[in-house]
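Let's study a protein:

===
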Amino acid sequence: MKTIRPFLLAICTLMTIAGAHATTVIPPTFDELVAEAELIFQGTVTDVQSQWVGEGGQRHIVSYVTVQVDDSIKGNPGKSYTMQMLGGTVGDQTMEVSDSPKFKVGDRDILFVEHNGTQFIPLVGIMHGRFRVEQDSTTGADVVKSDKGRAVTDLAALGKDGHGSAPQNSIAATAGKSLRATDFKAAIRAKLRATNP
């Protein structure tokens, strides 16, 4: 029985990791993002460290993504916040969770964090809880894009098409205007005030 127990534990761990790889995510709406996040903040990635953790069949790679907090919107992340995420690269070995965000030093993001340290990707809706902040090449303004780099143009579309891109007949979509980061954060704060007067 003692030799079977570690074997069963290893099988359960592998099934959990395999399940994480095959996870299907229903994109959250804007309201769900704001409500479900324990922390919301804008920041700049300052460090990404990956390491092996666990022993035997429980051995896996975990990445620690440290973000300098530039603007705290919900909760208190402090001046610097580190997220623990399943997956990463150590040496020549890589472990990936499909559709999980890939962070690198210098990335600027607005993050919707939940269950850090207990959830394999501690963002609401995995990749949907990360919004890239990039400078618009035409206007110079900071604009918001999805984790995959699509312009976010319509908050009401979040959770409907998965990216928050406006419908094709929308003026915003035809003009190609991305939502400004300041407007996105103002909408989050307004939603928080409306739900927690």
